[in-house]
Amino acid sequence: MKLGRYQEYAGFWIRSAAAIIDTVILLMLILPMIYLIYSSYYLGSERSIDGGWETLFSWLFPFVLTVLFWTYRSATPGKMILKLKIVDAKTGEPLSITQSIIRYLGYYLSSIMCLGFIWIIFSRKKQGWHDMLAGTVVVRTENRDVPDVDLENNA
C-alpha cells in the first residue's frame, strides 16, 4: 500500500480500542483450548500452571498469530475493524517479518509502566516505542475530512 500525499496517523485512543478488541478475540480463542486441556482447575486456581500447553497458548500462539496478521494483512482484527493499518514508516509498504517480530518484542519495552504506549500521545507521528524500534506507523485507511500529516515532508 503506497501512502497518498496525506495520510492520517492513528492516535492513542483508537489504537487502544483496537487492542481491546484484539484481546477479547484472542481470549475467545485461547480460553476454550486451555479449558479443554486443564479443565476448570485452570480457571479456578490461584496458582500458576507452567506447562508446555500454557506456554504454547499464552506466549507462542499470540506471538505467531500477531506477526502473521501484521505481515500478511498489515493489521490485527481489531485494527481491521477500526480501519487502521500498520505500515513501514518510510515507504508506506506492508511490514516485513523482521519488522513484525521487532515490533512485537518492542511491546514488552513499551509495557514498562505503559510509558511506550503513552508516548503515542506525544509523538508527532503517533508512534509508540515499539513502532520506533521497528520503523512503523499506524495509519487510518479511510481519510477523514481534514488531513493532518504530509508524510512526504515529515521524514
In brief:
The protein has 155 residues and is mainly α.
Taken as a percent bin, the fraction of beta residues is 5-15%
Count of DSSP-assigned helices: 7
The number of strands is 2
Spatial order of the strands in the main sheet?
Answer: 1-2
The overall pLDDT, averaged over residues, is 87
* Biggest sheet architecture: 2 strands, antiparallel
Return the structural class: mainly alpha
The structural domain count equals 1
The run of helices and strands is HHHHEHHHE
- What is the percent of helical residues? 55-70%
Amino- and carboxy-terminal Cα gap: 18 Å
Shape: elongated
**Spans where pLDDT lies below 50 across 5 or more residues:** none
Q: Tell me the radius of gyration.
A: 17 Å
Membrane topology: Multi-pass membrane protein
Pfam families: RDD
Transmembrane segments: 12-36, 56-75, 104-122
Keywords: Cell membrane, Membrane, Transmembrane, Transmembrane helix
Structural features, described:
The chain has one domain. 56% of the residues lie in helices and 6% in strands. It has helices at 12-38, 40-44, 52-73, 77-81, 97-110, 115-122, 129-134; strands at residues 84-88, 136-140. It has a two-stranded antiparallel sheet. Helix 1 (12-38) packs antiparallel against helix 3 and helix 3 (52-73) packs across helix 5 (97-110). The mean pLDDT is 87. This is RDD domain-containing protein. It is found in: Cell membrane. It is a multi-pass membrane protein.
Name the descriptors.
about 160 residues, mainly alpha, two-stranded antiparallel ribbon, about 5% strand, elongated
